[in-house]
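Now read the record:
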Amino acid sequence: MTRRSLLRGLGSMYVGAAALGGLVAGRKTAWAQDVPKAPSTGKKVRVGMPLNYGPFNQPWRRGCAAIARTVEARGGEFVTVRGEPSKQSEQQGQLQLLDQNIDVLILGVLQTESETAFIVDQAQQRGIKTVGFQVTAKNSPAIVEDSFTAGVQMAYLVQNELSRQGAVVQTAEDRGFFAGFDKSVDTVELMTKYEPRMKCLPFMPGSVSTSDQMAKGRENTLSLLQANPDPASVQAIIAWWWPLAVGAAQALRTAPDRDIMLACYYFSDQLLSEMASPGSKIKIAMDSPWRVSGEKVVDLAMLLGRGEKVENIVYYTETETIRPPQAAATREKLLAEDKAAIELLAKYGG
C-alpha cells in the first residue's frame, strides 16, 4: 500500500464521517480536485481577500500567491489590503474590503465560521458572495485542509516509528489561534490513548505568528529536557508549526545524548534545510498543498461571481509526507515557488 493510498483511505473515512455530520447540518463534503475549473472568459470578477501572512507564514503566503495568480488567469481582478497575522487584523481587512466594490469575499484563515458569521451576513446583504479559504464559512462553499486526517496520519507515522511505545509531546501555536492545529493535536492525543504503551505529555504552547517562534521552539524544548532529565522519558516531539520544529531541532542538537525524534507539519526553506542536514532529528515532515487550496478557492469564487450555482460544499485537500532523503529536492522546488510568490505579491503590497 502506498502512502497516497493510505492517506486516501484515511481521508475517505474522515470525509465519510464528515459527510454524515453534514447531512444533519445541511453541509456536504468532497475532495478539492472535484471543484470544477472556472473559465477565463466572462465577467471580470473582483475577488477580495486581505493579505495577513507574516514572515513565518510561508505556506499561507504561497496560498495567497496562488489566489492572486489564479484570479488573474481566470480573467478576474484581485483586490486586497495588507494586515498582520491576527484574527483582529484579518477581520478588519475583510470588513474594509466590503466597501471596495468586490463581487466575492474570500474568508480565512484564522477566524472560525462562528467568528466570521456576521461578516458573511453583511456581505450577502450587499450582494457579495463569500467562500472559505482554509476555514469553513457560514452559508458558503470552502476549501480546507483535512486537519483531522492529518492528525490520524501523523499519529500512525510517529507510533510506528516508535514501535508503539514511549512518550510523545506536541507543540503548536497557542490554543485558539488556528483551529486546524487544535484539531490535529486533539486527534493525536485521542489516538495515543488507545496505545497502552504510549502516552502524550502536556501540550507545549508555541505563542502566535507575531512572535519569534523559532526562539519559542528552542525555549520550550530546552525546558522539556530540563523537566524530563531521564533520557528514556521522551521519545518524540510533534511540532505542528515549522518554526517551532526548527527551534526544537536546534535545541536537540545541544543534547546529543537524547534520542528524541521530531515530526513536523508545513514545509519551509529553513525546515527542509534543517531536515536535510546531517544529524538532524527531523524524521517526518508533512505539508498541506496551500497552492492547490488557493487555486481551487478562486475557481469557486469566479463561478460564484459569474452567477453560477455553487453548492455550499466543504472541499478537503490531501497532505504530502516526506522523509530526510527527500528534503533537499523538496527544498529546491519550494525555493522556486517561494521566489515566484514573493515577486507576484509585491505588486499587491505583500
In short: The domain at 147-287 is CATH 3.40.50.2300 (Rossmann fold). The mean pLDDT is 92. The chain has two domains: 3-145+289-318, 147-287. Residues 218 and 250 are 7 Å apart (CA to CA).
